[in-house]
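Annex B. Sample input.
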Amino acid sequence: MNKDVVIIRGESVADVAAALAGESEIFIVHDVNVAATAASVAVALPAVKAVIGIETSEERKTMETAVELCERLLEADASRRALVLAIGGGITTDIAGFSASMYKRGIRYANIPTTLLAQVDAAIGGKTGVNLHGYKNMLGAFHMPEFTFLAPDALAGLPAKEVRCGLAEMLKTFLIGDADAYAAAISLLSGTKTLSGLRDFAVRAAEIKAEIVRRDPLEHGERAVLNLGHTFGHAIEHCSGGKIAHGEAVGKGIILAAKLSESLGLAEKGLAARLKADFEGAGLDVECPFGIKELAAAMKKDKKDGKFVLLRGIGKPVVMEVSGDDLCKCTK
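Annex B, continued. Sample output.
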């Protein structure tokens, strides 16, 4: 995977036409919930050969769905020159990117994320995949998109729950990479949570992730810090049976990671309480409904193999393995 991480900032989703002007075969794959957005993009792109809607949920994020998508591409005569244009949230970009990585041993794809979470995290960096038996992204591939296109109108009508999910991932990125941006975002969020006010912060979060991925595209080192809150978060998602969404679970997981950081002596006392107050001020529910023993059982099957991203402080992440005894020090 030797492509650069390309972020394109546009004013409207229709602006993506300029980035795709030289394409001869475009196959749009979109979340059925954003069919209107997909249709407006298709009108602006003469090279579109097919528009394929898919149902998106963690339950549908499976190998079977990815294979079905490959079958649709085959039926539509997609060649090795084809480009898949994914329009939707993180589940859509994950499935579309993974299917593109498999189809004819790999074709190109690009992303137009339509959720805040996807704009700041999921659609950037080339991690694609599907779930296996309810465990997150256990099957997947590193397959870098040609670009990720960020446009404010792609987020029009985004439900409040989806905004909250994106806020958790955005704040996570600032916690690991930009203490000043974290403070500024919290200041803004304490007064307003409108998407218009968040645009510059979303772009900054996307840029931070892109910078980290450029330095470590295959997650052999530094890129692992992007998993802050995710080891706990994936377990929370699994234990909830999918009732707690990914971004919500990550927010809860970040607070647990901060508590664990304190219990291990990495962070000064009070960090977890500060982050909890910040997150709650931003409108996030960070209380975890599960005990550490229940979470630990789910974490045994997580692909992170017992590694946690912890904090020495805001902007100071550290990746380390944590023993079962030390994990038990982190309580609800």
